[in-house]
Amino acid sequence: MEEKQQVSPVSAGLRARCPRCGEGRLFKGFLDLKPRCEACGLDYDFADAGDGPAVFIMMIAGFIIVGLALWVEFTWQPPYWVHAVLWVPLILILPLGLLRPLKGWLVAQQYRHSAREGRLHDVVETADNAGRDEDAK
After folding, report:
1. Nearest-angstrom CA–CA distance, 14 and 28
2. 24 belongs to a structural domain
3. Which residue among 17, 30, 56, 80 is buried most deeply as judged by most CB within 10 Å?
């Protein structure tokens, strides 16, 4: 039986496709995940990108836009209306354009590395049991 080649998380994420098969669509809306892949049936319940994509986008887009705005200001010193015309559309387009591919990439990385929600309760319970074992000695 021929084994299917693993899908690249970068490719699957940037194309907003299923991280297992690379065929089914990942999103049902702009950022809402589908319940499962229509091609291979992978359940997307494991996926929880949270605020990660938004934080990364704010950092990346902020660095790019502020850097360009400072460069334009110090190079040409244009009037304020030029800054508004240049940067307001970029402030809206750049984050929205990057958000979906980055969320798709993070979901694909979660699948690739079998990431799951943290279980603090299990760690605390294990630590409590270790303390009781030492008291019994």
Report:
1. 15
2. yes
3. 17
- Residue 19 covered by a domain: yes
Nearest one of 46, 47, 61, 56 to 104, comparing CA atoms: 47
Q: How far apart are CA 84 and CA 52, in angstroms?
A: 28
Range of the domain at 48: 9-116
The token pair that represents 125 in the structure block: 């319970």
Within-domain flag for 125: no
Which pTM does this prediction carry? 0.78
The total number of structural domains in the chain stands at: 1
Maximum Cα interatomic distance, the chain, rounded to a whole number of Å: 77
Burial degree of 36 (CB within 10 A; 0-12, 13-18, 19+):
middle
Please give the chain's pLDDT, 137 residues, in tens. Answer: 344 678 999 999 999 999 999 999 999 999 999 999 999 999 998 888 888 899 999 999 999 999 999 999 999 999 999 999 999 999 999 999 999 999 999 999 999 998 877 767 655 555 555 555 555 55
